[in-house]
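Field: COMPLEX_INPUT
Field: COMPONENT_COUNT = two
Field: RESIDUE_TOTAL = 1026
Field: MODE = joint
Values follow.
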Amino acid sequence: MPRKRTDKFVICRDTEAVTYLEPGLFPAGRQSEWTEQNRTLTFSIHPLSNQVAIAVAGKQPSESLAQKVPVYEQDQVVHICGLAGVPDNRLPFVNDTHAVFRTLQKIMETSGEERVAVGVDSLLRMSALYREAMLRQIRVLQEASDVTEFIAGEVDTFHSMHAVWHLLEIIYLTTNLPGLSTSIVPHFMEWLNLNFPAPLAEDGQRILANADLALNTELWPYMRKLALRGHVSVLANMLERVGQELSASAARWARDVAKIARNMPLGSSEETAGSFNARWRRWNEELQNAATAISSLLPSDDVALEPLSTVVDIMRGDADAISAEGESWQDILGALLLYSEPTSQADRLPSLAGIVVEQFQAAEFSVLDRALVALLSYELPEFLVFCNQIDPWLSAHMADLMDHISILDVCRAAFAVDPREHYLLALGEMYVGHENLWRVGLDYFGLGGVARCVMAEYAMRIPLESDAKARQVLGVCREFGLAMAVDRIHRQLGRQQWRRGRLGAAIAHFAEVSDRVSIGLICDQLWDQYLESGVLAYGPVIDSVLAAGLSHDRLQFLTRYRDFHESYKAQQFVDAGGMLLSILVSEIAPPHAVADLLVDAIPLLEGDVLVFSADQTLVLMRYAEALQQSPFPTRGSSRLGAVDEGELNIFNVACARNLARSFLV
Amino acid sequence: MNTLQRQSVGRKFTAVSWLPPRAGSAYTDTELYFVTGLGGQNKELALWTTANPDFESEPKAAPALTSDSNLATLVSKAAHDGDVQDIGIVSPDILATASSYGTIAIYDVQHHDTAHSSSSGLKLRESVTAHRFANGEPAVSTALSVQPVNSLDVEIASCGEDGRIAYVPLSRIDALQVYEVDSTVVTGVCWPTPAQVAVSTRAGQIKLFDRRKPAEASAVLVDPSTSHSFECIAAHPSQSFRLAAGTDAGNIVVWDIRNTKKPESEIVSVHTSNVWKVRYHPTDSSKIVSCSYDATVAFTQWARDMTTSERDIVRWSNFFNVLSVGCFDVCPFTRTNLLVAGSDSGNLLMVKSPATDFRLF
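Field: COMPLEX_OUTPUT
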């Protein structure tokens, strides 16, 4: 029996967030007084976007109230409230990352079963493109002329997104590249310095420019920060420069430490781990010696010796010194990795991160901290939840990428629903209601399973303002195999065109979904229009439909009836007669049109030329007989359509005369 | 596949057109102006300016894949009633737009030149509803075309989803004439000559109309080998008997209509999906330029070279542009091959390539 895990993270689709309207629809604190006046709120949710229409309504209809209720102007307004949308300045970012998302899916699709063959290489390239888009967005936002609170918030969000994405990239992609040194340390330091404010070169310049350098209070904290972040060569330069202003002994030690710092061993992919470790040990011993020598001088009157000793302690990997000096857990983790475990691989991170994070109050952590710690500790389900709190874009694309590097299965066990599908769906829902992004939104839906059903529902609700857009939506639906949506959209468009009087277009839409009943009704309408006006004007309508290769009894009837008229007009009476007879015999005419057809035969029967042979005349007479005996009037009140009894009598006489003539000829 | 230069704008581009240089003013053609129509959430008309590449001293190195260069600068914007479906340039100062609400609008391009600076703006002059369905709902105007005559009193022909052509005289736009010409959607319109109008229809027909007898088609052309519907149509700039139409299957059909009883047509497969717009290259009419739903812009050598049987088709796209390229315009005023296009992905796209050798046909 499979081990059952508790659903730690059942995603609640309706987060119980309370949104307040500002200003409210009634005065604050006067709710009961307000409701007593027969008033309540009514709302309706937009079918596509996150918008709600809210209005004041009466609890009972005003007609049913005994006394007249006063009407206030402010109650007559319908308020449209948007809960959350896509801000305008994010559109370029959404479009760019959508392009990367599409390419990524295509790469994974083409690889098919041979997922391994795709290699980390191309995934890494895509991941870098995502990050570039984030950085570009940060740059654009920072260039904005007026930095509002909203834009500052967006910048923060994008910084967080980038930090999270970059960390996942170095753990799962960069250090997984085949044929490279797999130590995570240099990458981790790069991540740290890129995503969290590193000691700035300008600060160093400013400090060095001060006149009384040795007494500057900013000097040593800056040096310690340099040491913590592993900027050893900058540190060495600073030490040499500072040494000129210190006492003789402090200056000597500063020069020595600078020299050692410059010699810090750097790993390379060509060097074996053993040889690197040997070099590292030698370097570390030098530092140890320096540290012992300096601390033997302490306590001292020389103010520079103590901070110098701290810097050396940090560099020799002294955990206590590092913990004491590091301001954030990222700093401490980085320094520990760099100075005490320089050859660590990614799998060392969880335990090390655990040790570091213990020293901090978890309650004070921001969402970003929590997400990063969860990622470092391989708590992937938790990590995804925190990603979602940072931004829905992040959780969706993160879940997608994690699925492609095959680490999402852990989360699948912990979530009640498939996390990739869920987060992508949530993102798609956010986009599909946006006028410019509906196509992007549909792409995020197209994943199969539940998403397909949701996609079909949304596709049917996308407003079809123009014919071109309708065709695009239909195209997307066909691409994703949403047969039901295609069917519904065509019917909807057919009815719309019918209402607009575009009968040809309406027939074309109904033909797409084989709605023969509606086509028959439209044809009947065309026939009725002809009977009313007496003008055969439907030619262009059915021509365009027939060009598309549609076959329908009523359409055939209308075409052949028109051909009959054309032959008659061209005085080809025999052809016309044959046409008329074939319409009757093939029984494509609607029952209510038979009488009209028979009346149309009168001029042919009475003409100078003999059109109908004896047999043909008998056929005509049989139809007239059947018509007169038919007990069921099919349309209107009369079974004869627009024909009256008298005309039919003329027809009978004409038939008899024609029959007689045909016997003589 | 060549890489288009792009500028990410985050708006949905629906139409674009270059403005001709203004003669006799401080406007030098070191700066070129073009107008874009925006649709979707922001329904606007925008005026942009870009440097004339003919005056660039050094051809720049090919831009990197991810670069988001600054191709053009926004000069001015004006609100537009509905999505801008098409833009027709009447003169350097006047342009006409077709809207998804069925209106034809005339805009003035205003230039204010002072000694130190010059500014330009767009201002709505007047508009008229040209397309309506029988039940009174407004119908989308799908395209428009300005009569190619050298006078200011021109007519603007527009077509719409109501299957009608509207002839709007610029001097009195209220006096428009509307004729029902098709039972499906009329998707494109062009003037091969000042007295002849050609339209393309959803049902896969090209219809020709004599302007003097506008109610009935003088010829209806159908390509029997294809049942695809047409999305757009364009006339050759100098040979009025040549037409090009784009289909919804990604083909371009080139017509020779000298004999309207027996027109010659040839199908070229250029794109993989709907061709939204075709145009003969204004300075090298042996090429047809087209843009498509498959997110590419293509230059097709339609006239067959005697030496090769293969057609020369050059396609342009951009990694960051995955959605439909809905509009483009080729600048006829530069020696450099300069094309601007806009897409649903919210990108302004540009082709700047050295002019090809002149070829005679």
